[in-house]
Design brief:
heterodimer; A: about 375 residues; alpha/beta; Rossmann fold; seven-stranded parallel β-sheet; 9 helices; about 30% helix; B: about 280 residues; 2 domains; nine-stranded mixed β-sheet; two-stranded antiparallel ribbon; 7 helices; binds flavin-adenine dinucleotide; binds adenosine monophosphate; ETF_asu_C_CS (chain A); flavin adenine dinucleotide binding (chain A); ETF_a/FixB (chain A); electron transport (chain A); electron transfer activity (chain A)
C-alpha cells in the first residue's frame, strides 16, 4: 500500500487542453464523497455533497461511495447508515485509532491509500477547515487537479467533471476541468448545494479498508479540544430565516434594529463584509463569498447594495426581501420582493408588525 | 530561527471592473496589494523573530512588478526578499505554483539556511483556493498547521510548537515538531505598521531575483500551464435572474409600509406564515 501517486507524473503536454486520459487512469471509476465527522457529528455539508454526487454518479452511470474515516466504533456504522440514507450506494469504512480526531498526517495518508486502492473518478470534499486542509494535501500527493469552492458541478458530454467556481474575487465565474489526471477533485462550501431528501432505511454495501498507519510515526499530537460555546456559535449557515444589514444602516446603533427584527422572527442575523471591517459584527456573521453561504426560507436584507460577492452567498434563499433607498441597487436584480425605502425607518415598524402578526394570540386565530 | 513567508501580490479586487462588451477583466490600472491574509502570517513570523532572533525571508512568485509587494514586506520588517519570476510560470494552477515555490524554498535553504517555519496565507483573495500552502507542505514534507488562531508556544531548541487550530465546531490545541508550515487565521494578530528604519532599508534593499533556472528548476513541464492538471475552459459573468424584484408600494407612515410588505410576502409565499409562526414560537 502506498501513499504515493499511482504512477509517476508523466507530464503529458496539456496546453492543447484536449482530453487524453492516460491508460493507467482509465480504470478510475465512481464518485466519492468524504464524510466529515467531528466529535461524532457528521457535518451537514457531507450530505449536501452526497446529493450533488448522486446526480454526477447517475449521469455517469456509476456508483456513489462515501469515504468514512475515523476510530473503530459504532459511530462509523451509524455514519455509513446516514450516508446510505442520503444517497450513497456504498461506504468505505477506514477505521484506525489514529483517525479518532482530524489530523492532517494520518488523514491524508489514509485517504491517499484509499484512493490508490479503490480508484475513484471524482472525489468531493466540503470546503471546511477540515476539507480544505485535507484536499490540498491529497491532491498534491496524487499530483492531480483540485478545484476549490465550486458552486456548480456537472458532467459534460465526454464524461468529464465540469467544476464551476467564482473567480477574481467573485466578479466572474469560471469552469474548470481536470482532463488527464484522476481523481478529479473538488471542494464545495457548506450550503452551496441543496440538502437532498433523507430516505430512511435505504441500504448500501460496506467495504472495510485498513489503512497503514502508526501512531508512533505521527508527529502531531492533539493536546486538547475546546468546543465552541453554543451561545458563541452562530447557526447562520443553516438558519431558516436570516435578517441582515449593510452599510445603509449607517451606525452600530441602527444595526440593533436588524437584531431586533431577527429576534422577533426567531431568526439569525448577519451582515455584509464592510460591517465586519467596521467591527459591528463578528466575522462568523459575514454573509457572502468570503463569509457564510446561506439558504434560508426567508432572507431579509436591509441597506445592502447586493454586490456580486454578497449575492453568491444568498442566492440559494427561497425568498429574498430587499430594503434599500436606491431603486437601482443591484440587490433588486436578484431579490424576489423589494421595497424602496429607508430601512432605519421601516425596520422598527416591521418588527412591531411581525410581533403582532406572529404573537400567540394571532396564532390562535390562525389555527381557528 | 529562519522563518519564510510566502506572499502573493494580488489585484485589489474590490476595484476590478469587467468590460461589459467583451466580458473580460480590465486589469489595467487596477492597484495591487499584498494578499491581505498573508499579512497575518507575516506579522506572526516577525513576532517569532523578535522573540527568538533570526531572520524572516519573504518569497513571492510573480511578474517582475511583484517586487513592489516584496518591498512593502521589507518595509513592514522582513529581512530578506526573494522574487521568483519567469515566463515559464505563466498560467500555473495551484499544483504548479506549489511546485515552483517549493523549488525556490529548496534553493533558499541551500543559500540562506533551511527555514524552521514556512508561513503562507490562509488563502488568496484572487485565487481563493487555500491550496498552495498545503501543496508546499506536502512537497517539502513539512507538518501542516492551517487555520491557526494562535501560536501558544514555540520552542526552537526542542524543535516543538503548540498552536490553536480552528475547526468547524471548536479549537484543537495541537503540538507538533519543527519544521512545519503554518497558515494564520485572519484577525489572529494586529499587523504592525513598520518602523522608519525598515522603510529606509526597504527602499535600498536588493531583492534576490531568480529565474526558474536560477532556482534550480530543471523540469519545466512541471511549471506553468504544462504543469497544471486543471484547465480553465470558460470564464463568464454570472447570469442575471430572469425577473427583477416585485416592488412593494411605499407609504407615508412606516407602519403602513410594514403592513404592505408583510401582506405581499405572505401572498407570494403562503407557506412562510406558518413557518415563521413556528420559528418565532421557538424563541
Ligand atoms: C474579494 C472580495 C470578497 C468580498 N466578500 C464579500 C462577502 O463575503 N460579503 C459581502 O457582503 N461583501 C463582500 N465583499 C464586499 C462587496 O464587494 C461589497 O463591497 C459589500 O457587499 C458592500 O456592502 P454593503 O452593501 O453593506 O455596502 P454598500 O455597497 O455601501 O451599500 C449600502 C446600500 O445601502 C443603501 N442605503 C443607504 N442608506 C439606506 C437607508 N437608510 N435605508 C436603506 N438602504 C440604504 C444604499 O443605497 C446602498 O445600496 C467582498 C469584496 C471583495 C473584493
Ligand atoms: N504566486 C505566489 N507567490 C507566493 N506565495 C503564493 C503564491 N500563490 C499563493 N501563495 C501563498 O499561498 C497562499 C494560499 O494561496 P491560494 O491557494 O491561492 O489561496 C497565499 O496566501 C500565499 O501565502
Amino acid at each position: 500500500m502506498s501513499d504515493k501517486p499511482a504512477a509517476p507524473a508523466s507530464a503529458p503536454s496539456r496546453a492543447s487542453m484536449k482530453k487524453e486520459l492516460p491508460e493507467h487512469f482509465r480504470g478510475y471509476k465512481h464518485v466519492w464523497v468524504l464524510i466529515e465527522i467531528e466529535r461524532g457529528t457528521i457535518h451537514p455539508v457531507s450530505f449536501e455533497l452526497l446529493g450533488a454526487g448522486r446526480k454526477l454518479a447517475d449521469s455517469l452511470g456509476v456508483e456513489l461511495a462515501a469515504a468514512i474515516l475515523g476510530a473503530p466504533g459504532e459511530t462509523m456504522r451509524e455514519a455509513a447508515k446516514e450516508a446510505f440514507a442520503y444517497g450513497a450506494d456504498l461506504a468505505y469504512l477506514v477505521e484506525d485509532e489514529t483517525l479518532a480526531d482530524y489530523r492532517n498526517e494520518p488523514y491524508s495518508k489514509a485517504m491517499t491509500q484509499l484512493v490508490n486502492a479503490h480508484k475513484p473518478e471524482i472525489l468531493l470534499l466540503g470546503a471546511t477547515t477540515l476539507g480544505r486542509d485535507l484536499a490540498g494535501s491529497v491532491a498534491t500527493t496524487l499530483l492531480t487537479g483540485l478545484t476549490a469552492d465550486c458552486t456548480e458541478l456537472a458532467v459534460d458530454a465526454d464524461g468529464s467533471l465540469a467544476a464551476t467556481r467564482p473567480t477574481f474575487g467573485g466578479s466572474l465565474l469560471c469552469t474548470i476541468y481536470t482532463l488527464n489526471y484522476r481523481p478529479q477533485m473538488a471542494t464545495v462550501r457548506p450550503r452551496v448545494m441543496p440538502m437532498p431528501p433523507r430516505v430512511e432505511g435505504r441500504e448500501g454495501r460496506i467495504i472495510s479498508f485498513k489503512p497503514d498507519l502508526d501512531e508512533d510515526q505521527i508527529l502531531t499530537k492533539i493536546l486538547k479540544y475546546v468546543p465552541d460555546r453554543d451561545s458563541a456559535k452562530s447557526n447562520l449557515a443553516y438558519a431558516d430565516v436570516v435578517v441582515s444589514g449593510g452599510l445603509g444602516l449607517q451606525s452600530l446603533e441602527n444595526f440593533q434594529l436588524v437584531r431586533n427584527l431577527a429576534s422577533v422572527l426567531g431568526a439569525e442575523f448577519g451582515g455584509s463584509r464592510p460591517l465586519v471591517q467596521k467591527g459591528w459584527i463578528t466575522s462568523d456573521r459575514q454573509i457572502g463569498q468570503t463569509g457564510k453561504t446561506i439558504r434560508p426560507k426567508l432572507y431579509i436584507a436591509a441597506g445592502i447594495s447586493g454586490a456580486i460577492q454578497h449575492r453568491v452567498g444568498v442566492e440559494g434563499a427561497d425568498c429574498i426581501v430587499a430594503i434599500n433607498t436606491d431603486k437601482d441597487a443591484p440587490i433588486f436584480d436578484f431579490a424576489h420582493i423589494g421595497i424602496v425605502t429607508d430601512a432605519i425607518r421601516l425596520l422598527p415598524a416591521l418588527t412591531e408588525a411581525f410581533r403582532k402578526r406572529l404573537s400567540p394570540h394571532s396564532r390562535d386565530r390562525l389555527a381557528g | 530561527m529562519h522563518i519564510l513567508v510566502c506572499i502573493k501580490q494580488v489585484p485589489d479586487s474590490a476595484q476590478i471592473r469587467i468590460n461589459p462588451v467583451t466580458q473580460t477583466i480590465m486589469r489595467q490600472g487596477v492597484p495591487t496589494i499584498i494578499n491581505p491574509y498573508d499579512l497575518f502570517s507575516l506579522e506572526e513570523a516577525l513576532r517569532l523573530r523578535d522573540q527568538f532572533g533570526g531572520e524572516v525571508t519573504v518569497l513571492t512568485m510573480g511578474p517582475p512588478m511583484a517586487s513592489d509587494s516584496l518591498r512593502k514586506a521589507l518595509a513592514i520588517g522582513a529581512d530578506r526578499a526573494v522574487l521568483l519570476t519567469d515566463r515559464f510560470f505563466a498560467g500555473s494552477d495551484t499544483l504548479a505554483t506549489s511546485f515552483a515555490l517549493t523549488q525556490a524554498i529548496v534553493k533558499i535553504s541551500e543559500t540562506f539556511g533551511a527555514p524552521d517555519i514556512v508561513f503562507t496565507g490562509k488563502q488568496t483573495i484572487d485565487g481563493d483556493t487555500a491550496q498552495v500552502g498545503p501543496g508546499i507542505a506536502k512537497r517539502l514534507d513539512l507538518l501542516q498547521l492551517t487555520y491557526v488562531a494562535k501560536i501558544v508556544e514555540c520552542d526552537p531548541d526542542k524543535r516543538e510548537i503548540i498552536v490553536e487550530r480552528r475547526s468547524e465546531g471548536g479549537v484543537h490545541v495541537l503540538k507538533t515538531k519543527l519544521p512545519c508550515l503554518i497558515t494564520m487565521l485572519e484577525g489572529s494578530n494586529e499587523v504592525r505598521r513598520g518602523a522608519m528604519k525598515d522603510a529606509l532599508r526597504a527602499a535600498r534593499a536588493e531583492i534576490v531575483t531568480w529565474s526558474a533556472k536560477d532556482a534550480g528548476i530543471a523540469d519545466m513541464t512541471k511549471c506553468g500551464l504544462k504543469g497544471s492538471p486543471t484547465v480553465v475552459k470558460k470564464v463568464f459573468a454570472p447570469p442575471p435572474r430572469s425577473e427583477r424584484a416585485f416592488f412593494v408600494p411605499t407609504a407615508d407612515v412606516a407602519s403602513q409600509e410594514a403592513e404592505n410588505l408583510i401582506t405581499t410576502l405572505f401572498e407570494r409565499q403562503p407557506a412562510l406564515e406558518q413557518d415563521l409562526t413556528t420559528t418565532a414560537a421557538g424563541f
